[in-house]
Every structure is written in structure tokens, then in C-alpha cells.
Amino acid sequence: MLQLKKLTKTYKTGDQALKAIDLEVPKGQVLALIGPSGAGKSTMIRCINRLVEPTSGEALLDGVDLVKLGATGLRKTRREMGMIFQEYALVERLTVMENVLSGRLGFVGFWRSFLRRFPQSDVDEAFRLLDRVGLLHMADKRADELSGGQRQRVGICRALIQNPKLLLVDEPTASLDPKTSRQIMRLITELCRERGLAAIINIHDVALAQMFVPRVVGLRFGEIVFDGPPNGLTPGKLTEIYGEEDWEATIEAVDDNGNEIEAAQ
């Protein structure tokens, strides 16, 4: 379980990106973080894995306070948190397989890491993951030959090969077309269900959150203003999160063929 207790981030300018956030994410639960730009969504994710240093508060992963960990403890605990990035963060000149196996770098010794010599069990798992996301036939292609959706699938495999307890996903569909965005969200949520994996997905697209995720947390100015099921995102609540808009006309969940569908339950 992940527990955030009064997690706060204040920058040197005095801007407060997170204001005493309290949040619990049980094992196996997938939630979406929504809110306007600057609401603190990416900051929250990055404070959890300490890519951004929190100012105060606690972030407990199975009882271990990530905020208090020193460098050695943080390196070890980061192996339990898979990260999927908006801009993929792949090494362009490396192959798909090499990029996936880079998720195991924190688990092998220095020389194996330096020489990229991984145990056969890691290689076998990389092949299984690539097969699961439909990229087995592209294992030897360079990352710079892939489309955006294919790159994101490689990023998903790289995160999952860590066998993490928690998946942190930062804007996984921001650079993708609508159909590919739905495919990627469907894939992430299916994989989390298959593995009993908890995940926090920072996403701008409210309709995608409503379609695929059973719990939505809305942020505004660094504070949680909504925490509930997607069908609780009424026009009034969306106005509270984002500001005035004709939400009845704007928010519409559709399937890959453009047919309106019900929100996730």
C-alpha cells in the first residue's frame, strides 16, 4: 500500500505545488490523477519516487517512508516503483530488447550492467513482456524506428520487468492520437489487473480516465478537490477542478469505433 501523509512541496520561489496531500492507494488499485496544468499532478508522482524532493510529509510504500531514505535505500526502493514517462525516455540508438532490459540495471552487478549482460531469466521475461504488448517481432529494431504508440509499449515493458509494487505513469497518452491513447490506457489497466499492481496515472484526458480507471483523484492548486469513482465527475465537480466549461458537451467517453460507452465502475 502507498500512503501519502501531509506530503508538501514548496519551491524556493514560495510557490506551493503540493499542499499537505493525504492519499492512500491500496495494493492492486489503479487511480487517475486529473486536473489543470500546474495543479501538482506530475509533482506528486515525482515526489513519490523522489525525482523531486518533497519539502515535508511522508510517502510510505508498505510502511517504508520514501522521504527519509538515504541514497542507498532510495536506489533499492526505486526498484519497486516502475515509471512510465510521457516522452518515453528510451535510448534511441539501442534496440527494443536492450531498452526493455534496461529496467533490470538496478538488479544486476556493476560489470553485468556495464556490459549489458543479463541473466537468461531476465531475457526470457523481456521476450514474454514484448509478446504480451504485441512487439515481439520488433525486439531487434532500434527505438528510433518505432512509432509513438510502440515506444510507449516499450516503456511499459521496461517498467514491468522491474516487477514493481507500484506503477507511476506520467501522461502516457499526451503525445498519441486518440485511438492509440485508448489502446495504451487499456493495456496499462489490463496489465495492472493481471499482476495485481497498484498504479497512479497522471492524465489530462478526463474521458480516458472515465473509461478505464475505477478511481479518480482531482487536483487543483496542489490540493485534492475530488476523490471518487469516475461517474462522480459531474459537470459541477469538473468545474470545481478545471473551471467553467460546457462539460455536458465536452466530456464524452467513446470506444475505438466512436460509440459512446459507460464510465468505468
TrEMBL record:
Gene Ontology molecular function, alphabetical: ABC-type phosphonate transporter activity; ATP binding; ATP hydrolysis activity
InterPro entries assigned: AAA+_ATPase, ABC_transporter-like_ATP-bd, ABC_transporter-like_CS, ABC_transpr_PhnC, MetN_ABC_transporter-like
CDD domains the record matches: ABC_PhnC_transporter
Pfam families, per database record: ABC_tran
GO cellular component, one term: membrane
All residue ranges annotated as the ABC transporter domain in the record: 2-246
Source species, domain of life: Bacteria
Keywords linked to the UniProt accession: ATP-binding, Cell inner membrane, Cell membrane, Membrane, Nucleotide-binding, Translocase, Transport
Name the UniProt record assigns to this protein: Phosphonate ABC transporter ATP-binding protein
The organism of origin for this protein: Roseobacter insulae
